[in-house]
Amino acid sequence: MKESAKISDENRDFFDAVYEVTRLIPRGRVTSYGAIAKYLGSGRSARMVGWAMAASHRLPRPVPAHRVVNRTGVLTGKHHFGENRMQVLLEEEGVRVENDRVVDFEQRFWDPGRDPELNPFD
DNA sequence: CTGTTGACTGCTG
DNA sequence: TCAGCAGCCAACA
């Protein structure tokens, strides 16, 4: 077996986990790349989450990638949606965006590690 | 194989 | 407060 194939296989698992968590983000809420990476064990850096988001557009099932922003609430991935599509999608969910940044980011922030559904023992 | 790039983050001065 | 920098890891030329 090729070692490169093994590495790709691990990446696939990581991608799947990222997409799974991303789909759990409640409507009207947002989270960060780092929060997802941390929830998955911080095994890989937050850059890998962003990398996964970039590839999420080709998936057969849609991923709410517009709900993932950077740690300061800035829509760093907006360019991957087209001009202003990411902001429009967020505003349609009631998330206000000003100057490419989520308004009341700390209130809107959703941490997968703090969701009682995901952490019944917390 | 080496260097560059990227939807990031935390530390430092 | 904020710009700069290093760590991060896979893809790409």
In short:
This protein is mostly helical and 122 residues long.
Plain-language structure description:
- By secondary structure, the protein is mostly helical.
- The chain has one domain: Orthogonal Bundle (Arc Repressor Mutant, subunit A).
- It contains five helices and four strands.
- The chain has a two-stranded parallel sheet.
- A hairpin with a 2-residue loop joins strand 3 and strand 4.
- Helix 2 packs across helix 3.
- It binds a DNA duplex (13 and 13 nucleotides) through helix 2, helix 3 and strand 2.
CATH level 4 superfamily: Winged helix-like DNA-binding domain superfamily/Winged helix DNA-binding domain
Please, how many helices?
5
Beta content: 5-15%
Lateral arrangement of strands in the main beta sheet: 1-2
Largest pleated sheet: 2 strands, parallel
Distance between the termini: 41 Å
Give unreliable regions as ranges: none
CATH structural architecture: Orthogonal Bundle
What is the highest CATH level, the class? Answer: Mainly Alpha
Helix fraction by DSSP (H/I, runs of at least 4):
40-55%
SSE order, one letter for each helix or strand? HEHHEHEEH
